[in-house]
């Protein structure tokens, strides 16, 4: 029953991750195609934002993979220390060395916290850069639409509809890199499992 529950939990986790990734791809693509149907120029500019993100992703991927691997190893060490501490508590109390082991465990928690903080700060810059590229691209779409409305080549109602589509486009695209870090964490965990099984 425990194994079945664990498999079920992991399957639900994988499905949730797949849904998140679909959200970051399907929703913006659908919004772009709908905007393309409204006005081909605005839709084309929105579709061009997708290829702009690919180089940023490949630039960030090796660093992200190393960070996730380091975090995974730190979590694994800490989990082992927690299990060892919990299982050996009676022996440690009998020997009177539970305080020393407790301090060592606290030091491992602090080291993991520092590692997580450093990793988060290193990743925040890349995430902000990609979110900025998305936002600037969408502002170019809106500014282009305004120029086309002023020059009379685009109907204002079409621009308003396109702005509604842009709002559906912006959020998932800005979160794209944050979602891919979860995929890198999963890839790192699978790599460790493969090494363990070999």
TrEMBL record:
InterPro entries attached to this UniProt entry: ABC1_TM_dom, ABC1_TM_sf
Cellular location(s): Cell membrane
GO molecular-function terms, A-Z: ABC-type transporter activity; ATP binding
Domain ABC transmembrane type-1: 9-185
Membrane topology: Multi-pass membrane protein
GO cellular component entries: plasma membrane
Record keywords: Membrane, Transmembrane, Transmembrane helix
Positions of transmembrane segments: 12-34, 40-59, 154-170
Top-rank lineage group of the source organism: Bacteria
Name of this chain's protein: Inner membrane ABC transporter
């Amino acid at each position: 029953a425990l194994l079945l529950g664990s498999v079920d939990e992991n399957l639900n986790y994988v499905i949730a991750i797949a849904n998140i990734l679909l959200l970051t791809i399907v929703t913006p693509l659908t919004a772009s195609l709908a905007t393309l149907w409204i006005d081909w120029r605005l839709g084309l500019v929105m579709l061009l934002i997708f290829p702009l993100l690919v180089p940023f992703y490949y630039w960030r991927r090796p660093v992200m993979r190393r960070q996730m691997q380091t975090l995974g190893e730190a979590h694994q060490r800490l989990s082992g220390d927690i299990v060892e501490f919990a299982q050996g508590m009676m022996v440690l109390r009998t020997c009177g060395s539970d305080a020393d082991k407790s301090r060592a465990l606290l030091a491992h928690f602090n080291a993991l916290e520092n590692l997580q903080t450093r990793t988060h700060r290193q990743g925040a810059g890349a995430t902000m850069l990609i979110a900025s590229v998305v936002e600037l691209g969408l502002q170019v779409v809106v500014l282009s639409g305004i120029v086309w409305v002023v020059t009379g080549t685009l109907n204002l109602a079409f621009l308003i509809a396109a702005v509604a589509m842009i709002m559906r486009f912006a959020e998932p695209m800005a979160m794209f890199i944050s979602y891919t870090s979860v995929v890198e964490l999963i890839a790192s965990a699978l790599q460790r499992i493969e090494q363990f099984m070999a």
